[in-house]
Write a structure and sequence with these properties.
Order of helices and strands: EHEHEHEHEHEHEHHEHHEH
Largest sheet: 5 strands, parallel
Bound molecules: pyridoxal-5'-phosphate
Strand order of the largest sheet: 1-9-6-7-8
Structural class: alpha/beta
Radius of gyration: 20 Å
Number of strands: 9
Number of helices: 11
Strand content: 5-15%
Distance between the termini: 67 Å
Helix content: 40-55%
Length: 318
């Protein structure tokens, strides 16, 4: 890319292998402290796994609603942690509607994005860490794969609070929101100069975390991107997978396709000279590629023939 100061913040190392652990760790801890017993969530996938794990550790019930075509890893991790999982033939928006309709009757506390106050507090740690890791001088730009946008909103909030505390100065990174070409409501609103997005019809992408057709906090994302003089891009699935694999090949970091999308977006921004070669740029890889077997399997076809697994023969007792 010709970049000299390009960094990746690899969130695949979090418990449950995505950045969703940050928000749900905080939300579940506070829910337990405040007396909730049953937690419910609509999820694009990784938030479900994180809720399931933290709820298990806290001894709380987790009720999870997610699209039936989420990555198998998200289904397995949720089931393994003892969550009550309902797969919905639809999108996260349909899951959210069902949780909203049933929560009162079922006695669930809803931990949907931005409907309780603590997930965003947990996500703020991404902002604290990046400040600390760059010695309290924020980078020139941050690329973030944006679904519901809580990570970006959380970092933006963390920066304002750190400035108020006197920990950092007034300089802010350009905030770059990256979405998938098959579901890019925020990019479209950014390009159209609108304050909020419109529901994206027929959302589809292998970056399952980005399959959010309408984010509750879209206007906050757009505000932060504009205030920071940032940008909003959309990246095709092909380009996201290509960039994810390039990162794995060159750096040994196997990124979620959401992270791959940010790598591809960074390349575009260097090529268009939106970034200068000596800018300090941070890419958030929000999850591990190991959770996306279905998406990456399309690149490494393996024969499904059972031949290789057959027994060499049957040996009977004499
Ligand atoms: C790996 C990954 N990246 C990015 C996102 C988008 O996160 P947010 O909804 O906070 O924008 C998700 C959401 O599920 C995700 O799982």
């Amino acid at each position: 890319m010709g970049a000299t100061r390009l960094f990746i913040k690899d969130e695949g190392h979090n418990p449950t292998h995505s950045f969703k652990a940050r928000g749900l760790c905080c939300a579940v801890s506070m829910a337990k402290k405040l007396g909730a017993k049953k937690l419910a969530i609509p999820s694009a996938g990784n938030a479900a796994g994180a809720l399931a794990a933290y709820a298990a550790a806290a001894g709380l019930e987790a009720h999870i609603f997610m699209p039936s075509d989420v990555p198998q890893s998200n289904y397995l991790e949720s089931m393994a942690s003892g969550a009550h999982v309902t797969l919905i033939n639809g999108l996260i928006s349909d899951c959210g509607r069902i949780v909203g309709e049933r929560k009162q009757g079922e006695g669930w506390f809803e931990v949907s994005t931005l409907k309780e106050p603590y997930r965003i507090e947990g996500k703020k740690t991404m902002g604290y860490e990046v400040a600390e890791q760059f010695n309290w001088k924020l980078p020139d730009a941050i690329l973030y794969p944006c679904g519901g946008g809580v990570g970006l909103i959380g970092m933006w909030k963390a920066f304002a609070e750190m400035e108020a505390l006197g920990w950092i100065g007034p300089e802010r990174p350009k905030m770059i929101s990256v979405q998938a070409a098959g579901c890019a409501p925020i990019t479209r609103a950014f390009e159209a100069g609108q304050p909020a997005s419109e529901f994206w019809q027929n959302a589809h992408t292998v970056s399952s975390g980005l399959r959010v057709p309408k984010a509750l906090g879209d206007f906050l994302v757009l505000q932060a991107v504009r205030e920071s003089k940032g940008a909003a891009l959309s990246i095709t699935d092909e380009a996201s997978l290509d960039a994810g694999l390039e990162l794995a090949r060159l750096e040994g970091i196997f990124a979620a396709p959401e992270g791959g999308a940010c790598v591809a977006a960074a390349r575009q921004l260097y090529q268009s000279a939106f970034f200068q070669p000596d800018d300090t740029v941070v890419i958030y890889n929000t999850g591990s590629g190991a959770k996306y077997a279905e998406a990456y399997s399309s690149r490494f076809f393996r024969s499904q023939s059972a031949e290789q697994d057959k027994l060499g023969g049957l040996i009977l007792p004499r």
